[in-house]
Amino acid sequence: MSQPLDPKQAITEAFGDALESAEEFRGELTLVVKAENIIEVATYLRDGEGLKYNLLSDMAVIDYFPAEPRFGVCYHMYSMAFNRRLRIKVMWSDGDAPIPSVTGIWPSANWEEREAYDMMGILFSGHPYLKRVLMPDDWQGFPQRKDYPLGYETVQFSFNYDEIAKHKPFAKK
Amino acid sequence: MTVDPKTQFAVWEGNVEDLKGLVTDRALSGETMILNMGPQHPSTHGVLRVILELDGEQVLSCIPDVGYLHTGIEKNMEYKTYEKSIVMTDRMDYLNPMGNGLVYCLAMEKLFELDVPMRAQIARIVLSELTRINSHLVWMGIGGLDLGVTSTMTYAFREREVLLDIFELVSGQRMMSTYFRPGGLWRDLPDEFEAAVQNVLDTFPAKIDDYDKIITQNPVFVDRTQGIGFINAEDAVAYGLTGAALRGSGVNWDIRKAMPYSSYEQFEFDVPLGQHGDVYDRFVVRIAEMRQSLRIIEQGLKRLQKEKGPFRSDNRKYVPPPRAELGRSMEAVIHHFKLWTEGFRPPKGEVYVSIEGPRGELGCFLASDGSPNPMRVHFRTPSFVNLSALEKLSKNHMIADLVGIIGSIDIVLGDCDR
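YS: structure for the whole thing
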């Protein structure tokens, strides 16, 4: 069996400027990768000698609201050959080009990406069926976003009447 | 609901065009039949809806539709402090409350760099393995019921009562235990715990042997499960199957062995593997896992008799002081007030921790922005990912086999939908 490669070094050598930054926290390596390069990077991480990240464990999206770029799409991958994990993060904001879907690389990404779309409104290009998975099909908005309230309202008093009224345009009708 | 005036049968109002790309073109012309199964179908283990495209009785495509039990647990946890949101985790996978609590606590402990005393670690292992047996018993009972072995369900639920009594003994709750806390346990194990677990160790091996005979040697069951729902090792990994569904295909990957947590590396146990990757092998693997869990519990019980130390960390930055100290120590009052009003402020960062749950890899992704509430909690639940492989597993099987396949990947919809 080949020797394990350092994923940060391997990506830098193979793709140069695709890697935006790298961070290590509590022994977990996070590599921030440009969205347009995700397909090449993911294919290389899955198949590359010394990498072999063959299992996509999880995809999670963080909302950094109000910072820009707003969303961090995290791919948690695991290499069974070398028994180690890696987190690849792609930064994305509303209005950016959709992130290329990794469903063709790991079929398990199918529902994970649907969940990311459903909960956070992340768009993926090349996904076979990008529809809501957990919420009802006709749901408005993306519930996991930080600016989506948790089903309660601030009480409307005279001192904050106008501010609250701005959030509910339908109340006047 | 629209009713056909001639036949008086309900007519499906959905638009076939919406299913384009998911079903074959023959469905669009009406040549094959589209059938809705669920969400209140007894064999779907909760509220799972499956849209099937059928040619006669053969399943051409299968579209699982989940989300009926979505309760926004991840969203709710962002609005609670770290410790208060442990109660939410119990409600995800209602057959594995201890495991959900464990993975969330492990993620917090990794983020805070909090040490757990050895007694608490061993107690966590014993309780997690009891939960694994509890979950496998329910799966076995209902899985057998689906495939015509009706008596297993009553037996399995009888045995499960013994385990639920132990959970009630330690935590006061049969199912929603909330017993694990960051840094250890809510309280020490009661004195009766050892006798109760010893009772399980004495009585369960013979019972598991009985169920093994009832189920895996039942000719009807063997006929209905062997060669059904086949998936090979490469596909199983690619589709993200974990747990017994992956090991049934012969992939030797168990997180308890690969990345030991909570001192699993000090325990001796084997990882049962299947050979063929069909429904039958996945059943056999889970029944063998119950025996291995009993081995772990036996070793853990011996360790617990020796480890009489503290049951929770005394890092007062994260762990509240014992109630008795409040009357004596001013510092304890300050800590108590601070921890129960504001909570604690952990360092900024992101961690991902996973454990081997009864259904597979149960992961928790925890992101902190330095405030007392978690910035983002995401659970990688095995049911959600395993269920997404149902389409692959059930292709070209008979509709009656689908019931066995759903049973064999052992889904809990509360776990899937969160």
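YS: worth flagging: Chain B has a mean pLDDT of 87.
IM: good catch. Also The beta strands of chain B are 2-3, 10-11, 33-37, 49-55, 58-65, 180-181, 184-185, 349-356, 361-368, 376-380.
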